[in-house]
Automatic annotation (TrEMBL):
It comes from the Bacteria. Gene3D superfamilies: Homeodomain-like, Jelly Rolls. Keywords: DNA-binding, Transcription, Transcription regulation. Residues 187-285 form the HTH araC/xylS-type domain. It holds the Pfam family HTH_18. The keyword DNA repair does not apply. This is AraC family transcriptional regulator. Transmembrane segments: none annotated. It comes from Paenibacillus glycanilyticus.
């Protein structure tokens, strides 16, 4: 365990910089299955843009001021003060500032290394990139304050990791409240579809359960989510497959069966079509140092 190092960047805006703010580096052991190596605040210039093609970390963020945009794979959201976001490990992250210099886009961020996807799944946030109007800013700030105090008698890594869990609990509660404002039918559809990760999708069964034609259901679902029903189910299965490939040694054929595909070759072709890599190649790529 190395001594905690705190890097604080001068808070005088340099026009040549795309961002400034505090970056706080935490002590950690590489043997930990989940740890937080850095937390901080980004104060972004209007030209700020950050892209991770295949992120090896999960980022938890909360907007303090201004406007910005996140893109996680093909999903795009515009954020403002009070909104929170999750940029999950293994996906393509794109973060862009949209505010002028007189009101810079400013946000807290925590970087999570290790097995963060099972943690997101446990809090039903694996499919969530954007949570509007949350109240977690004080939780992020509490973590920054704890690191800056540099109390040698406290295991700061444990403190911040537990703080992340507290943030995820609050985000889950906010996501549920946000869903409660959705049409009751949409809530019913999502609850039904979320249970199909390990089963084949049957549109006739879905229509029967919802008492509407599949065409009507698909139109309503896409209107409110921007995704078709099939895309939603497939994205959940692909995300679960990525998690299992990265964090387990389960054979590809067993993963296919676990996700409701009797034909492993069909699953492998579908996975490659969706991600650009075969399951085996994705596993090798994800585990590269």
């Amino acid at each position: 365990m190395r001594k905690m190092d705190i890097i604080q960047i001068d808070n005088l805006l340099n026009p040549a910089l795309r961002k400034y703010g505090d970056i706080l580096a935490l002590p950690h052991s590489q043997d930990l299955s989940l740890y937080v190596p850095m937390i901080g605040i980004n104060i972004c210039a209007p030209t700020y843009k950050n892209i991770r093609e295949k992120a090896d970390i999960t980022v938890l963020g909360h907007v303090i001021n201004g406007h910005g945009e996140i893109k996680v794979n093909a999903e795009t959201h515009r954020l403002e003060r009070g909104d929170s976001f999750i940029l999950k490990k293994g996906s393509r992250h794109e973060v862009t500032a949209l505010s002028a210099a007189n009101e810079p886009w400013t946000y807290y961020w925590y970087n999570l290394h290790g097995n963060s996807l099972p943690l997101l799944e446990a809090f039903q946030l694996l499919q969530t990139s954007y949570i509007p109007n949350t109240s977690v800013g004080s939780l992020f700030q509490r973590g920054l304050d704890a690191v800056k105090q540099r109390d040698e008698d406290i295991d700061i890594q444990t403190t911040i990791t537990l703080g992340c869990t507290e943030i995820l609990i609050a985000l889950q509660q906010s996501a549920v409240r946000s869903t409660d404002h959705s049409p009751p039918l949409l809530i019913r559809m999502k609850r039904y579809l979320d249970q199909l990760v390990g089963e084949p999708f049957n549109s006739e069964d879905f229509s029967r359960q919802m008492a509407l034609s599949f065409k009507q259901l698909n139109r309503i679902f896409k209107l409110h989510t921007g995704s078709t029903v099939y895309q939603y189910v497939l994205n959940r299965k692909i995300d679960m497959a990525k998690m299992m490939l990265q964090d387990t040694d389960m054979p590809v054929g067993d993963i296919a069966v676990h996700l409701g595909y009797e034909d492993p070759q069909y699953f492998s072709n579908l996975f490659k079509q969706k991600t650009g890599l075969s399951p085996t190649s994705h596993r090798q790529y994800a585990k590269e140092p």
